[in-house]
Amino acid sequence: MTEAQAALMDRMYRPQRRIYDLTRKHYLLGRDETIDALSPTPGTHVLEICCGTGRNLIRASRLYPQARFYGVDISSVMLDEARAKAAGSQSAAPIVFAEGDATDFDAQALFGVARFERIFISYALSMIPAWRAALAHAFDLLTPEGELHVVDFGDQAGLPLWFRVALAKWLACFHVTPRGELASEFAAQAQARGLAHRHEAMYRGYAFHEAAAPRRG
Ligand SMILES: C[S@@+](CC[C@H](N)C(=O)[O-])C[C@H]1O[C@@H](n2cnc3c(N)ncnc32)[C@H](O)[C@@H]1O
Q1: Cα–Cα distance between 160 and 103 in angstroms, integer?
Q2: 55 lines ligand 1 (CB under 6 A)
């Protein structure tokens, strides 16, 4: 699966990578709110799984210059773009990028870090066939105090039917399948690990933000 998925992503993103950030800002909604919710303390290790062009990590590194940032993606084309953008940006904190499959990468081997206090996945579970396994792997990489955040397409419940149908057709052109069971699967995996879970529907259900953290008190 890894090689086929890597080849598919490289093929799709090679012609798009220069316009990716410009175009996606109009429809990958909720990413900035998710980054705002991370609020890592100084020294915190922050990992984005499926980091794409590095857009989110660069933004996060400006917001939280005393944290440490890591990004993994299966596409070497996207990672080339991410490294170039990070090198040319004013990001205050260095970002380490590495190639890996979200379902089974070895964080210790890639980054020299085995567990992370903050992990986020933005608009990627909807592109990964084995998305439940990718989610489970992300949970496994959390420190005991760690938080996992996922933002992705929601159920569109507050939006008109014609919009939902058109969006689904259009997303299929990009190998994107909104996960109807994202919220329930996230809740189940969080509960299985004894974590508290928060679900937020944004933009009338266009996007879902799922968050898991240790129970307090
Ligand atoms: C829609 S882009 C989102 C990029 C970024 N997270 C953002 O919010 O702009 C999805 C990304 O997931 C990556 N991806 C897809 N399948 C993957 C997998 N199995 N493992 C790691 N990355 C994967 C793609 O290469 C692509 O960069």
Answers
A1: 34
A2: yes
Please check whether residue 119 is in contact with residue 171, taking contact to mean a CB–CB distance below 8 angstroms.
no
Contact 72, 50 (CB under 8 A): yes
Instruction: Determine how β-strand 45-49 pairs with β-strand 68-73.
Output: parallel
Ligand 1 contact, 79 CB (< 6 A):
no
Closest-lying ligand 1 atom to the alpha carbon of residue 75: 25
Task: To the nearest 10°, report the CA torsion of 147, 152, 158, 161.
Answer: -160
151: β partners: 122, 209
Q: Burial level of 210, CB count in 10 A (0-12/13-18/19+)?
A: buried
- pLDDT tens for the chain, 217 residues long, are 589 999 998 898 888 777 877 777 777 999 999 999 999 999 999 999 999 999 999 999 999 999 999 999 999 999 999 999 999 887 667 899 999 999 999 999 999 999 999 999 999 999 999 999 999 999 999 999 999 999 999 999 999 999 999 999 999 998 999 999 999 999 999 999 999 999 999 999 999 999 999 998 7
How far apart, in whole angstroms, are the C-alpha atoms of residue 74 and residue 52? Answer: 9
Beta carbon of 207 within 6 Å of any ligand 1 atom = no
pTM: 0.95
